[in-house]
């Protein structure tokens, strides 16, 4: 008797959800990335009673009626067609997994109206194996996603959820990161009906700094150096704000590094920054920074991990040295004139 069988789509999605949907914050991360990929300029996020309800609404280009059920299917994406596209991917998403994963572990409603369409349409799922039916709905141009009762059908996952306050902190952190990645987009975050962040789109440098201040705190921007350095030969550009050595922190909690608009965690980058601050920070203190690295997308592989938090640089050494040298120079410029070695 044969013992091998195909997993049902729902089970396959729930297993994949284990990688992508760790907690409510990961849901919001995926939904926000989708809104940004859809060209939204205005995004509203609501969270109520922990995982009871999360709602996100954007004014992006929307989803066609016939694409709605597909949007919830695994490995269905409008963002890449072939492997070559992955080599120079500019969108935040490309795996076609997020909505399928989220909808397999929650009660999800997706409502959308495509640019130029006369009507909006809606699909709903309850974490079951069924073809979702599409019904007409009222909605302005753009997309809303409502996620209720996260992990209602995966008790093992639900057990790992922390208090509402803790989960909301994580969710807020995700919103901050994405708000820092796109200062040109307006964000509003509400928790149980109360507005927590209201971020207006920034065009000018001053507005940009205001956004950094509202996300990172005014003390940071007051004690930060701004930089914008390009290396012509390699096409690398590093810009943003770094905290003065006097603004060091006891935790590495104010460190944002974006590569082509995507927040990343990377050992090589962390090392380069640490080295640049090496001589000016006491042991155990951490620098604060909001930095944006821009480079040819072909020189960085983003398909390293399902959460897309990690990247692989084709020219690791070059990137490391560029970051180190750039920051080192900026920091050296403001150091109280270091006395030449040996001088009194
Ligand atoms: P991916 O983002 O990797 O393509 P998702 O599961 O997150 O996969 O989304 C599937 C598809 O649904 C996307 O490729 C996109 O076409 C569509 N979609 C999802 N969210 C939105 C949105 N907010 N606005 C417009 N289209 C969306
Ligand atoms: Mg996505």
UniProtKB/TrEMBL annotation:
Q: Which domain of life is it from?
A: Bacteria
GO MF term list: endonuclease activity
Q: Where is the DNA mismatch repair protein S5 domain?
A: 212-332
Query: Which UniProt key words apply to this protein?
Result: DNA damage, DNA repair, Endonuclease, Hydrolase, Nuclease
- Family affiliation: Belongs to the DNA mismatch repair MutL/HexB family.
Q: What does this protein do?
A: This protein is involved in the repair of mismatches in DNA. It is required for dam-dependent methyl-directed DNA mismatch repair. May act as a 'molecular matchmaker', a protein that promotes the formation of a stable complex between two or more DNA-binding proteins in an ATP-dependent manner without itself being part of a final effector complex.
Query: Can you say what this protein is called?
Result: DNA mismatch repair protein MutL
Organism of origin is: Marinobacterium aestuariivivens
| Top-level taxonomy | Bacteria, Pseudomonadati, Pseudomonadota, Gammaproteobacteria, Oceanospirillales
Gene that specifies this protein = mutL
* Covered residues, full protein: 1 to 344 of 615
């Amino acid at each position: 008797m044969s013992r091998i069988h195909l997993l049902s789509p729902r089970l396959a999605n729930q297993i994949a959800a284990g990688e992508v949907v760790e907690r409510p914050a990961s849901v919001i991360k995926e939904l926000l990335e989708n809104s940004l990929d859809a060209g939204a300029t205005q995004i509203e996020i609501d969270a109520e009673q922990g995982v009871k309800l999360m709602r996100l609404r954007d004014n992006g280009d929307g989803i066609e009626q016939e694409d709605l059920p597909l949007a919830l299917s695994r490995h269905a994406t409008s963002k890449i067609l072939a492997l070559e596209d992955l080599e120079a991917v500019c969108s935040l998403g490309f795996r076609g997994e997020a909505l399928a994963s989220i909808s397999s572990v929650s009660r999800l409603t997706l409502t959308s109206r495509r640019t130029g369409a006369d009507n909006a349409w809606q699909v709903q799922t309850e974490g079951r194996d069924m073809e979702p039916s599409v019904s007409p709905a009222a909605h302005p141009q753009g997309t809303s996603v409502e996620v209720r009762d996260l992990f209602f059908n995966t008790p093992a996952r639900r057990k790992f959820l922390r208090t509402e306050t803790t989960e909301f902190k994580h969710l807020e952190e995700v919103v901050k990161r994405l708000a820092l990645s796109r200062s040109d987009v307006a964000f509003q975050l509400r928790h149980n009906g109360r507005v927590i962040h209201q971020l207006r789109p920034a065009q000018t440098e001053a507005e940009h700094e205001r956004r950094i201040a509202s996300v990172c705190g005014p003390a940071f921007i007051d004690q930060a150096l701004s930089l914008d350095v390009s290396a012509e030969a390699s096409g690398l550009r590093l810009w943003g704000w770094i905290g003065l050595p006097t603004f060091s922190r006891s935790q590495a909690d104010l460190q944002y590094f974006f590569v082509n608009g995507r927040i990343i965690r990377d050992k090589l980058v962390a090392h380069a920054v640490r080295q640049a601050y090496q001589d000016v920070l006491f042991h155990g203190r951490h620098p604060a920074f909001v930095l944006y690295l821009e480079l040819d997308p072909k020189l960085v592989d983003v398909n390293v991990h399902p959460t897309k938090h990690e990247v692989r640089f084709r020219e690791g050494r070059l990137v490391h040295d560029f970051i180190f040298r750039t920051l080192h120079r900026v920091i050296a410029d403001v150091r109280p004139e270091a006395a030449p070695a040996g001088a009194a």
